[in-house]
C-alpha cells in the first residue's frame, strides 16, 4: 500500500516538473502541491498496527537542555564529530552506513547539557523510506537544532538533497511559521481577509485549495503580503510542520584549499571544521550555543553571592522569571512574592520584578517567596 502512495507522489512530482508555471496553470499547480502535501502526510502516518513505523530502539529519550541532530550523507564524519565534542564514542569507518541507529552524546557548554544525536547517514529518497531514512528524518523533527554535516570536498551535491528530504517530512529550516491566521469552523463558509493585499496568493487560489481539502468553513487572515501557496498549504498542515533552526557544518576542511574554506565559511548559517584535525570545533560549539538561544541565569539567596560556576540554563523562548522558577522547583511560582534582578534585563540594578519579567543572558536573580 505504501508503494501506491510513493508512486502517486512520483507522478505528481513529474507532473509538476513538466507543467509550465504561468497564470493559466497557477491554480492547477497550487492544487497539485496541496495533493502532494496530503500524500506525504499519509506516507508519514503508517497504517495502524504496522511495525514499520519505528526502528527497534531507534528513539532515544530527550535529555539535557536541548537536542541537536546530526544529519548528513554517509561518511561525512558525523560520528567522528560526535566523538570530538562529546565523551561518547560512535563507530567510525571509511565505508558508508557505519552508524545504523541513533547514538546520543552530551556536549557540556556554559553550564548547559546539550544532547547531540549521531544518526545514520541519509541519501536521496530517505523520506520515502530508503535505508533508515524515514526514522532519521522523523528524529530530526524532534531536534531543537539540525546540524547538517556536509562534506567540504563535495560542497554542491549534498545540501539541496538533504534540504528536500527534510522539507518533504514537514521540516522547515531557518524559517518562521507563515504569518497566516487559519481556523476551521463548523459553519459560515470561508472568510478570506488580509492586512495588505497578498502579492503571490489570491483569494481564488485559497478558495480552490480549501475546496480541494474539503474544508468548507474557515477563517483565513493573511498578515504578510509575501506569503505563497506553499505557505498556505503549510498552515493547513500546521500540526505536522516543524520550524527548526539549521546550522550547516562543512567537515573535512583539511582536505580542501584555504580559498575553498574561506568561500564556504562566508555562506550564511555555516561553519567549517575538520573533525579529525580538530579544527573549528570551538567556533562550532559557540555557534550551536548561539543558535539554540540559551541563557545562563545565576540564582542567589538573599545576602549571599551567586554561584557563577553553576548557572541555571533556560531557552530564550522560555525566558521569564516564571520559567526560572519552574526550572528550580515546580512549586516555586505558587510561593513566589517577587524577584530582584541584576544585569542586562534590569532597568536599574537590582530591579524588583514579577513572574512575567523577561531575563537576559547572565542575569543574577534572587527570588523571594512567601513563607
Ligand atoms: N580528511 C578527513 N576525514 C575525516 C574527517 N572526519 C571524518 N573523516 C573520515 O571520514 C570517514 C567517515 O567518518 P564517520 O565519522 O564514520 O562518518 P559518518 O558520517 O558517521 O558515516 P555514517 O555513519 O556511515 O553515516 C572516516 O574514514 C573518517 O576517518 C575530517 O575532518 N577530515
Ligand atoms: Mg556514523
From TrEMBL:
Q: Indicate the secretion signal residues.
A: none
Tell me the ranges covered by the TGS domain, including all copies.
293-369
Question: Which part of the chain is the OBG-type G domain?
Answer: 66-293
Keywords (alphabetical) are:
GTP-binding, Nucleotide-binding
From what superkingdom does this record's organism come? Answer: Eukaryota
Q: Which InterPro entries match?
A: Beta-grasp_dom_sf (IPR012675), DRG (IPR045001), G_OBG (IPR031167), GTP-bd (IPR006073), GTP-binding_2 (IPR031662), GTP1-OBG_CS (IPR006074), P-loop_NTPase (IPR027417), Small_GTP-bd (IPR005225)
Q: A Gene Ontology molecular-function term?
A: GTP binding
Q: Which GO terms describe its biological process?
A: cytoplasmic translation; positive regulation of cellular response to amino acid starvation
* Key word Nucleotide-binding present: yes
SUPFAM superfamilies reported for this sequence: P-loop containing nucleoside triphosphate hydrolases, TGS-like
Q: Which Pfam families would you find in this protein's record? A: MMR_HSR1 (PF01926), MMR_HSR1_Xtn (PF16897), TGS (PF02824)
Q: According to its UniProt entry, what is the function of this protein?
A: Involved in ribosomal function.
Q: What is this protein called?
A: P-loop containing nucleoside triphosphate hydrolase protein
Q: Which organism is it from?
A: Yarrowia lipolytica
